[in-house]
Design a protein that fits this description.
Strand content: 35-45%
Membrane topology: Single-pass type I membrane protein
Structural class: mainly beta
Pfam families: Cadherin
Helix content: under 10%
Keywords: Calcium, Cell adhesion, Cell membrane, Glycoprotein, Membrane, Repeat, Signal, Transmembrane, Transmembrane helix
Largest sheet: 5 strands, mixed
CATH topology of one domain: Immunoglobulin-like
InterPro entries: Cadherin-like_dom, Cadherin-like_sf, Cadherin_CS, Protocadherin/Cadherin-CA
CATH class of one domain: Mainly Beta
Strand order of the largest sheet: 26-31-30-28-29
Protein name: PCDA5 protein
Length: 668
């Protein structure tokens, strides 16, 4: 069994009429199998369908008749197309199969009559309407297709002669129009039976009824006239103020001449009847020109006719301004960030106050309020008096006043807080030693700017353990924030130096135990940099003399453990520097030999007792705290005292004081 059943085509199209009756049989072409015997005996199956089944007459051979049986009536409007799969299987083991798709198109039959969406349509028409007036457009639907859904409209044969004379209907569009003038007194309503018929065979029809109600016409509309008008109306006008006088009349009589009046929109105005046919337009609510500057009022009149006729008269009511709004800033407090070193006259910020009033009532002028924070005062326009110098701190917070030009003038205020942003315009400055030696602090240390550096002297004993502090580089930066956060780096010697520098403390300590092989002297170049962009730096040269333990102790007793600043002499030979060191050591030994014990006591007391540093000078103090993790804060203080208590850790506390030169005396 090596041949599967095959159909002549893969898809067969069938057209079956929608009107076909259940049980109808439609022949199908079977499949063929090239095998013989049982391998060629074919059986057929059809995919599931509620409308069709498979029928086969004769034996299970290729000559048997195959047919499709309609088991349920078709409805093209529900399912116009059916797709089924016919499968042929042979008798071999294993069985082989072949398939063919049946595409069944349902042909339409005229089995649906036209349908209107309403059984009764009601139409109202005014008497006296023009000829050809469209009253209604009828529409019927037919779900069939082709001619079976093509609909024509006409009056039923039972329609009266009056209807045929008064109305016409378009057989294709279903439009009913007037062909004569309606007269309410002659006939107040009409009933029209309309038939919608398709063009099928046989044709099917649907019916509806159209009821036309004729409405009586009120021939004369009311008339509204403005006899007096008082505008503009001040926005502070009191309730009850008369704005306009109106006259209303209608030429009709009876109910058709009886007129009702009102104001639209209702808004702040209303009507009051004064006497027959006369009305006053009065103010019922307070006005606000800033909310609504002009009103378009419509006085409407309606008579009592059926149907009622209406008339209207528009009245334009402008509202005049009064100074009832003070200038208002969008914020109560403005925060302004300004960089230092800006030029005089540079714009710091723009403030704008809104005054919804108009003309002079809304024209705003600005000034710095008198009696502001720090005594700041002034005006946006220059005056002719003498100038009074004020410290810069008085401008950190001040008040701006906005005044309109109304009568009386109204004003609004806003506070401006000015924060000066630091720029990295100051390089670190090296400070003199804090020790008690005779030369401590005697030499001024300046930031290097390509002009060299200052040499600092220190002593260390051979055999000193790792981590012993030899000296401390002290520097300060007049900037703030990151611009004043200093770091210390050992620039020379590079590589394995016996000394190291604390990154943020500036302490020079031994990196390992000192040996005689390290030589009699170590020259260290230390760079102090801030964290600004671009960074600024200063350079210090530290000369560390390595001496015996006793000599180092004597030097420490003399207060020389701190750095002693001396000007570096370029080009000095190594032997000359050593000789100078020995001379100073001898002088130090002679100077303190008689006070050695007292010096040791004082040294211990100063080493372990709490210390307080008090700095004094003119101007406010800016306190900057720099920790080893780089956290910063600053504040303004009138006091310039800073006390460091026990347990301060390794944090550095530095006080920076901006010293401004005294102002030049102002003109008398």
């Amino acid at each position: 069994n090596d041949n599967a059943p095959t159909f002549r085509v893969n898809e067969e199209a069938l057209n079956i009429a929608e009107s076909s009756l259940p049980g109808s049989r439609f022949p199908l072409e079977g499949a063929s199998d090239a095998d013989i015997g049982a391998n060629a005996q074919l059986s057929y199956t059809l995919s599931p369908s509620e409308h069709f089944s498979l029928n086969r007459n004769g034996n299970n051979d290729q000559s048997a008749s195959l047919g499709l049986i309609l088991t349920k009536s078709l409805d093209r409007e529900t399912m116009p197309l059916h797709r089924l799969v016919l499968m042929a299987s042979d008798g071999g083991r294993p069985s082989l199969t072949g398939t063919m798709e049946l595409v069944i198109s349902v042909l339409d039959a005229n089995d649906n009559a036209p349908q209107f969406n309403q059984s009764v349509y009601k139409v109202k028409a005014l008497e006296g309407s023009e000829f050809g007036t469209l009253l209604i457009t009828l529409s019927a639907t037919d779900p069939d297709e082709g001619l079976n859904s093509d609909i024509v409209y006409f009056f039923s044969k039972h329609v009266s002669t009056e209807v045929k004379e008064m109305f016409t209907i378009d057989e294709n569009k279903g439009e009913i129009r007037l062909q004569r003038k309606l007269d309410y007194e002659e006939m107040d309503s009409y009933e029209i039976t309309v038939e919608a018929r398709d063009r099928g065979s046989p044709p099917l029809s649907g019916h509806c009824k159209v009821v036309v109600e004729v409405l009586d016409v009120n021939d004369n509309a009311p008339e509204v006239w403005v006899t007096s008008l008082s505008v503009p109306v001040p926005e502070d006008a009191s309730v009850g103020t008369v704005v306009a006088l109106l006259s209303v009349s209608d030429r009709d009589s009876g109910a058709n001449g009886r007129v009702r009046c009102w104001v639209w929109p209702s808004g702040p105005f209303g009507l009051e009847a004064t006497f027959l046919g006369s009305y006053s337009l009065v103010l019922r609510e307070a006005l606000d020109r800033e909310r609504v500057s002009e009103y378009e009022v419509e006085v409407r009149a309606e008579d009592g006719g059926s149907p009622a006729l209406r008339a209207s008269r528009g009245v334009r009511v402008p509202v005049s301004d009064v100074n009832d709004n003070a200038p208002a800033f969008s914020q109560a407090v403005y925060t302004v960030l300004a960089r230092e070193n800006n030029l005089a006259g540079a714009e710091l910020a723009r403030l704008w106050a809104r005054d919804p009033d108009e003309a002079g009532n809304g024209r705003v002028s600005y000034s710095v309020s008198e009696g502001g924070v720090g005594g700041a005062s002034g005006s946006s326009s220059s005056g002719g008096g003498g100038s009074v110098w004020r410290p810069a701190s008085s401008y950190v917070s001040f008040e701006v006043r906005a005044v309109d030009a109304g009568e009386p003038p109204l004003c609004g205020n806003a506070t401006v807080q000015l924060f000066v942003l630091d720029e990295n315009d100051n390089a670190p400055a090296l400070l003199p030693s804090a020790g008690g030696g005779p030369e401590a602090g005697a030499v001024s240390l300046e930031a290097s700017a390509g002009l060299g550096s200052e040499t600092l002297w220190a002593w260390a004993a051979w055999g000193a353990p790792a981590g012993q502090v030899v000296a401390k580089i002290r520097a300060v930066d007049a900037d703030s924030g990151y611009n004043a956060w200093l770091r210390y780096e050992l620039w020379e010697p590079r590589g394995k130096s016996p000394f190291r520098v604390g990154l943020y403390s500036g302490e020079v300590s031994t990196a390992r135990a000192l040996e005689e092989a390290d030589g009699p002297r170590q020259r260290l170049v230390i760079v102090v940099r801030d964290h600004g962009e671009p960074a600024r730096s200063a350079t210090a040269t530290l000369s560390v003399s390595l001496v015996e333990g006793a000599e180092a102790a004597l030097a420490a007793g003399a207060g020389s453990s701190s750095l002693v600043a001396r000007s570096a002499v370029g080009g000095e030979s190594g032997s000359g520097a050593t000789a100078a060191t020995n001379v100073w050591l001898v002088v130090a030994i002679c100077a303190v030999s008689s006070l050695f014990l007292l010096a040791m006591v004082l040294y211990g007391a100063s080493r372990w007792a709490p210390r307080a540093a008090v700095l004094a000078g003119p101007g406010p103090t800016t306190l900057v705290c720099a920790s080893e993790v780089g956290s910063w804060s600053y504040s303004q203080r009138h006091s310039r005292s800073l006390c460091v208590a026990d347990g301060a850790g390794k944090s550095d506390l530095m006080v920076f004081s901006p010293n401004f030169p005294p102002p030049p005396p102002g003109p008398a």
